[in-house]
Amino acid sequence: xxxxxxxxxxxxxxxxxxxxxxxxxxxxxxxxxxxxxxxxxxxxxxxxxxxxxxxxxxxxxxxxxxxxxxxxxxxxxxxxxxxxxxxxxxxxxxxxxxxxxxxxxxxxxxxxxxxxxxxxxxxxxxxxxxxxxxxxxxxxxxxxxxxxxxxxxxxxxxxxxxxxxxxxxxxxxxxxxxxxxxxxxxxxxxxxxxxxxxxxxxxxxxxxxxxxxxxxx
Length: 217
What we know:
- By secondary structure, this protein is an alpha/beta fold.
- The chain has a single domain (2-50, 69-213), classed as Rossmann fold, CATH 3.40.50.
- Helices cover 31% and strands 35% of the residues.
- The protein has six helices and twelve strands.
- Strands 1, 4, 5, 6, 7, 8, 9 and 10 form an eight-stranded mixed β-sheet that branches.
- The longest helix has 20 residues, at 29-48.
- It starts with a strand and ends with a helix.
């Protein structure tokens, strides 16, 4: 699996990354959501450079201009609810993309262990298209895998791009192992080495869904 890590090079993306990690700035949920959205926009721009392209002719008031534009048929998908701001950021740039959504959550048992459950998915046909599946935090990789498998029931994409803002090294390794025979790329803002006993990324940033939309029962 080809992996691109954005924070390995200096860019404004790293400023947004620093802010979503900062526990003081996190108190402003509006700014947190906006930063997730802006990071989705940066990811969309960087991803767009790698897509297939074609030359088109554009009639201007004064003549004909030739421009090279992406030609992939895109489906932007996200895992609810944390993925929504990032999804919007991708959609701000890939505004002609179709959309898909998957509801996934951790179901804890009395011992504190958990399983990932998929409750709902909504997607157009994926046959022959490029699927961009975004999930801000890739911890164990289980929820991303299950969401991906649920979406594959809607067809076979030509290529799949997983997009995350922060991932654990264990999660990246897991996703790489489970997609070895598939046409998959992984784009991520940063990879953190540690995954704690509760399967949270360290240093990470905490619970992206709660920080964006408030705590849940």
